[in-house]
Amino acid sequence: MGIATILVSCGNRFGFVHVGAYNKGFVQASCDTWDIFNRVGLVQLIDLDLTGSFCFLSGVAGGAISSLVSGIWSIVLHKNYATELSIYAFLIGYFMVRLALAWPQACVSAYYVAYAENPQSTHFDSTIPMRLEQLERSHV
Description:
By secondary structure, the protein is mostly helical. The protein contains seven helices and no strands. The protein starts with a helix and ends with a helix.
């Protein structure tokens, strides 16, 4: 458990925001970002974020659809290559959807980091504070 905690705090996707914004190394940026999340109290909200799971499952769904379409097409035309084409189509479909969803996932990560760095900014609405309040009420 301790090793997993260290890996999460020293290597997380939120560190990429600091790598790009402050030109830090990845490990240092991840540690700094996680420290900011701890200080502001966003760790519980970050742990409940489903963006990564949604992107992964969307990638699997895209790969499955690609595999299904290519499998049907290859069975109709080239029965000998149906398995290989289905596997290749799944991989291509998965990675195409993951690439398409990388931008929204990065935007969500950047929003969390920007909020953690300056929660009192007028650029943010009340979404994160309201969610944190809901989480606090549900645990009390």
